[in-house]
Amino acid sequence: MDYKLVNFNVPNHFINSFDEMCKFKRISRTHILNRLMEVWLRNEVKRLEEDNKFNHLIRDMKLRNRDTSPLQKQKETRWEDDEDILPPPIINPYENDDWETELLNL
């Protein structure tokens, strides 16, 4: 089966308003929740790709501007030398709090 039942708690005032909006728009809860998850996932993938590009840019800038003196080489961190190791992406869970606009754009 390609589906999985998901259960989670929602405050009553949210679910009541959500149900009323679903009825008004004649769209199922499942459809809206699936769409919201899809939009969120697509946005997160884009952000991760942007973070990766940013991390590569920073690493490349550091490599180009690196001082080649022995003292400077001792101070360098491992990820600056190793192209396979990058710093973690910058993640801000509160960056996109405008969920109402996204919901209206469905």
What secondary-structure arrangement, pairings included, does this model have?
Layout: H1 12-25, H2 29-64, H3 70-75, H4 78-81, H5 99-104
Low-confidence stretches: none
> How many structural units, i.e. domains?
1
- Give the termini separation: 27 Å
- Supply the number of helical segments: 5
Radius of gyration: 22 Å
% residues in beta strands: under 5%
How many strands appear in the DSSP assignment? 0
Instruction: Describe the main β-sheet briefly.
Output: none
Inertia-based shape: elongated
What integer is the average pLDDT?
A: 80
The helical percent reads 55-70%
Order of helices and strands: HHHHH
Helix and strand composition category: mainly alpha
Structure write-up:
The protein is mostly helical and 106 residues long. It has one domain (12-90, 97-104). It has helices spanning 12-25, 29-64, 70-75, 78-81, 99-104. The relative contact order is 0.10.
